[in-house]
From TrEMBL:
<protein>
    <submittedName>
        <fullName>Anaerobic selenocysteine-containing dehydrogenase</fullName>
    </submittedName>
</protein>
<dbReference type="GO" id="GO:0043546">
    <property type="term" value="F:molybdopterin cofactor binding"/>
</dbReference>
<dbReference type="InterPro" id="IPR006656">
    <property type="entry name" value="Mopterin_OxRdtase"/>
</dbReference>
<dbReference type="InterPro" id="IPR006657">
    <property type="entry name" value="MoPterin_dinucl-bd_dom"/>
</dbReference>
<keyword id="KW-0411">Iron-sulfur</keyword>
<dbReference type="Pfam" id="PF01568">
    <property type="entry name" value="Molydop_binding"/>
</dbReference>
<dbReference type="GO" id="GO:0046872">
    <property type="term" value="F:metal ion binding"/>
</dbReference>
<comment type="similarity">
    <text>Belongs to the prokaryotic molybdopterin-containing oxidoreductase family.</text>
</comment>
<dbReference type="GO" id="GO:0016491">
    <property type="term" value="F:oxidoreductase activity"/>
</dbReference>
<dbReference type="Pfam" id="PF00384">
    <property type="entry name" value="Molybdopterin"/>
</dbReference>
<dbReference type="InterPro" id="IPR006963">
    <property type="entry name" value="Mopterin_OxRdtase_4Fe-4S_dom"/>
</dbReference>
<dbReference type="Pfam" id="PF04879">
    <property type="entry name" value="Molybdop_Fe4S4"/>
</dbReference>
<keyword id="KW-0408">Iron</keyword>
<dbReference type="InterPro" id="IPR009010">
    <property type="entry name" value="Asp_de-COase-like_dom_sf"/>
</dbReference>
<keyword id="KW-0560">Oxidoreductase</keyword>
<dbReference type="InterPro" id="IPR019546">
    <property type="entry name" value="TAT_signal_bac_arc"/>
</dbReference>
<feature type="domain" description="4Fe-4S Mo/W bis-MGD-type">
    <location>
        <begin position="51"/>
        <end position="111"/>
    </location>
</feature>
């Protein structure tokens, strides 16, 4: 950081924050109604109470979407408090955590971006000059016009993080598509926490990215398995449901390499070796098959188990193969799965029905003949059939063939879980009902898709899915169904979305899937990719370093704004109204505007209107916020449930599903082509097309495969022998709340947790500052001894900003390698070493 002055105003980031801090801290001291950890205004006895309370929603990506009271005096938010949900009058989800209580320290903190700024020094130097909104918009749009004229329309790109769950100014907003589709820009999609989605949805169909029984249903399970999820910290809004379940007699089993707080509260903790969850699940299934304890009726009636599979193509044997013409029927459009390969080419007619082609799978019936699935009286789970010289086996037999490669005695060497424990876990999973709650642990390696695929396949073997107390999934948060993603002014995107993991290569080569595709400007909103995306040095050097114009809109300074050419001051959540349509509570929630935007900040909605006008489309976004929000939710399907925008505003929140608690896949109704659980994947597809190739045969069934880096004997094992893991701390949500003064008193600096044996072997004492390093980068933090850390692993609380470290940052160390099917950032698939920091 430098104190060099800018030519226009004499401001640097340091002097800006120093001056801003003197003003805003003084303002906050008179505004924030907390005691103990910060100065609070002392209101004299008898002073008239002129406080107004607004309805707010805490909408960071913890997914809690908790309702808050926003207490306002003299146009200042003086405190926040818990606000009841009207959809749940029993108070079961009314809550607020320390983050929710500390919002005033974000709103009035010294790190607010107060006005538009333009970079004048080197990127990353923190040297800007203050400019007006008019100057900022003109500079951005003039550059965009120049770039598109020189490099093509696609050369303007936009991306977001997960810092605002709002529907108008947040990550669920269609307004960005209205504007950026109009100028034919490229959308760069974040690639986080998606491996679970691919592994689960390819078996049960797409009901949403993260689907599981509502957590209030945990208490109805006999056993709750939690795989790699530290709910007490990462999704603490769900923790009380786990505690309630234990009070009701539910047994809690935590499968995690680390003794987390949740593991410490478990009835049984299983410290599995990192990245081996798939092998553990497959071995549990071995026990079920070996003991002939699988749910055969469920397998026969609700899964692909009896389907015959051709050995030559790997496809299901269809009745058309046997000379039977497919059926052609008319069904309601809403009954057709969008992912169904059976319905390729289906057309919706004017009556809102679909012409559907049914080419039924062939099965072996009890009499030994091959029949259509719909005609067989007792489809067999096992057996073979010779189709014109092509051997065919049932999908179940193929699954069993794979499963039998993982007897507990072999799996214990892979997972470091004793064979007798694997047998015990299998018996618990059979003795239902039970729920398997997957977290982000196994998701964070390049074999994460298979870990999720294996887990959901275990539900197929037991039949424990789709009813109270039984289910498998992630269940973090859900997009409410029935909303409208097409509002006034929306046009179709001209170019396909591009994964953020593909962006560095595009920037290095100006190529996308072999074709010319230069990108020269990136607009970032509601996110902090420099801090949260893997391989920071690659991102800074190859992505930002090759941009002509890097624009960031945020309400506070972050690692990402540090590298911006133009910084735009965005409004805080409570300085604008919005509608939350992505929620762990499965509620639509209206968040009121409590105060006017501070300083010169504007909502993202208003910023988009200015950008549209600057690009020559002043009438593109011409409705009021309420009118657009009405278009989002006033749909026939929601109206049929009694949900309208006006009712949401009136009630503040409205539950969006007819029944409570919500149970996905009820009545064994799955959104696959067959309507069954298809643990055998006939047509494997990728999560995101980046022009990659993949091994289709490997993807048909769940398998254990080594991750890319984080295992003993990997290509970098000769240099680095510690697996670097992270935890999602309770004091931040990703990098949000990083500079919150209230929380920093409780959590003051970056740390790295180590097993004492690993530390002592390297001469590291408890409390030493250490340098964690690999070929990609380094990070300095304070070492903390912790016997709950598995030997061979290190754990850091994620998402500290780089300026909060003595050197480096955690994301420098993270690989940008990814599984071609999952196309997911592999946050845990990293090997590192550590040494005492020499302060150089």
């Amino acid at each position: 950081m430098t104190d060099q002055t800018t030519p226009k105003s004499g401001l640097t980031r340091r002097s800006f924050l120093k001056a801003a801090g003197a003003t805003t801290v003084a303002t906050a001291a008179g505004a924030i109604g907390f005691g103990g950890l910060a100065i609070a205004e002392d209101y004299a006895p008898g002073q008239p109470d002129e406080e107004t309370i607004f309805c707010g929603v805490c909408r960071g990506n913890c997914s809690g979407t908790c309702k808050l009271n926003l207490h306002v005096r003299d146009n200042k938010i003086v405190k926040t408090s818990k606000r009841p949900f009207n959809s749940f009058p029993d108070g079961s989800i009314d809550r607020i955590c320390l983050r929710g209580l500390s919002h005033p320290y974000n709103i009035y903190g010294p790190n607010r971006v107060q006005y538009p700024m333009k970079r004048v020094g080197e990127r990353g130097s923190g040297e800007w000059e203050r400019i007006s909104w008019e100057e900022a918009i003109k500079y951005i749009t003039d550059e965009w016009k120049r770039i598109q004229a020189e490099y093509g329309e696609q050369a303007i790109a936009y991306t977001r993080g997960s810092g605002n769950m709002g529907a108008i100014s947040g990550v669920a907003s269609p307004m960005y598509n209205v504007f950026f589709n109009k100028i034919n820009a490229s959308m760069i999609k974040i690639a986080r926490d998606q491996a679970n989605t691919r592994g689960i949805n390819r078996v049960v169909g797409n009901l949403g990215d993260w689907v599981l029984n509502d957590p209030s249903d945990f208490k109805n399970a006999k056993t709750l398995f939690v795989w790699g999820a530290n709910i007490t910290d990462a999704q603490l809004h769900d923790w009380h449901h786990v505690a309630d379940a234990q009070d009701a007699g539910t047994k809690l089993v935590v499968i995690d390499p680390i003794m987390t707080q949740l593991a410490a509260r478990a009835d049984k903790w299983v410290p599995v070796k990192p990245a081996t969850d798939a092998a553990l699940a497959l071995s549990m299934m071995y026990v079920m098959v070996d003991e002939d304890a699988v749910n055969k009726p469920f397998l026969r009636d609700h899964t692909c188990a009896p389907f015959l599979v051709r050995s030559d193509t790997g496809k299901f044997l269809r009745m058309s193969d046997l000379g039977v013409e497919p059926e052609v029927i008319e069904v309601a459009a809403g009954q057709v799965s969008a992912a169904s390969s059976e319905n390729k080419g289906a057309k919706v007619n004017a009556a809102k029905t679909v012409t559907k082609v049914l080419d039924h799978p062939a099965v072996l019936d009890a009499d030994g003949t091959v029949k259509s699935l719909v005609e067989a009286t007792d489809p067999q789970l096992s057996g073979t059939y010779d189709f014109n010289g092509v051997p065919c086996s049932t999908a179940y037999d193929l699954l069993v063939e794979d499963i039998m490669q993982y007897p507990p005695e072999k799996a214990q060497d892979i997972c470091d879980v004793p064979a007798e424990t694997i047998v015990e876990l299998a018996h618990l999973a059979l003795d239902g009902p039970c729920i398997h709650r997957l977290g982000w642990g196994s998701n964070s390696y390049t074999n994460g898709v298979h870990a999720a695929h294996a887990n959901i396949t275990m539900a197929a073997l037991t039949g424990q899915i789709g009813y109270s107390g039984a289910g498998t999934g992630v269940g973090d948060f859900k997009a409410c169904w029935g909303i409208n993603a097409v509002v006034k002014g929306m046009t179709a995107a001209k170019y396909p979305m591009i994964s953020a993991l593909a962006l560095p290569e595009i920037m290095r080569t100006d190529k996308w899937k072999g074709e010319d595709y230069p990108i020269r400007s990136l607009y970032v909103y509601a996110g902090n990719p420099v801090s949260n995306q893997v391989n920071t040095n690659e991102y800074v050097n190859d992505v930002i370093g090759n941009m002509d114009l890097y624009v960031v809109a945020d309400y506070c300074f972050t690692d990402t704004t540090k590298y911006a050419d133009i910084v735009l001051p965005a409004a805080h959540w409570f300085e604008q109204q919005d509608l939350v349509v992505i929620s762990a509570t499965q509620c639509f929630i209206h968040s009121e505007k409590a105060i006017d935007p501070l300083y010169e900040s504007k909502s993202d909605f208003e910023i988009l209107k200015l950008l549209a006008a600057g690009m020559g489309y002043p009438d593109l976004i011409d409705l009021a916020e309420d009118e657009y929000m009405s278009q989002v939710v006033d749909t026939p399907s929601l109206t049929a449930l009694g949900i309208t925008y006006e009712k949401i505003k009136e009630n503040e929140d409205m539950y969006w599903y007819p029944e409570k608690p919500w149970i996905p896949w009820q009545n064994a109704s799955f959104r696959t082509e067959s309507g069954r659980m298809e643990f055998y994947v006939e047509n494997p597809t990728v999560q995101f097309d980046v022009g990659q190739t993949f091994d289709e045969e490997r993807e048909r069934l769940p398998r254990y495969i080594n991750p890319t880096e984080a295992y003993e004997g990997s290509p970098t094992w000769d240099k680095y022998k510690l697996i670097l893991l992270s935890e999602r701390p309770r004091f931040r949500v990703h990098s949000m709340w990083s500079d919150n003064a209230y929380l920093r008193e409780l959590d003051p600096e970056p740390t790295i947790k180590m097993n004492p044996a690993d530390a002592e072997a390297r001469g590291i004492a408890d409390g030493d500052y250490v340098e964690v390093y690999n070929d990609r980068g380094h990070c300095v933090a304070k070492a903390v001894y912790n016997n709950g850390i598995r030997p061979g692993c290190m754990v850091y609380p994620k998402s500290w900003q780089s300026h909060q470290h003595k050197a480096g940052c955690w994301s420098e160390l993270l690989t940008s390698e990814y599984d071609p099917v999952g196309v997911n950032e592999s946050y845990f698939d990293n090997l590192v070493e550590v040494r005492v920091w020499n302060e150089e």
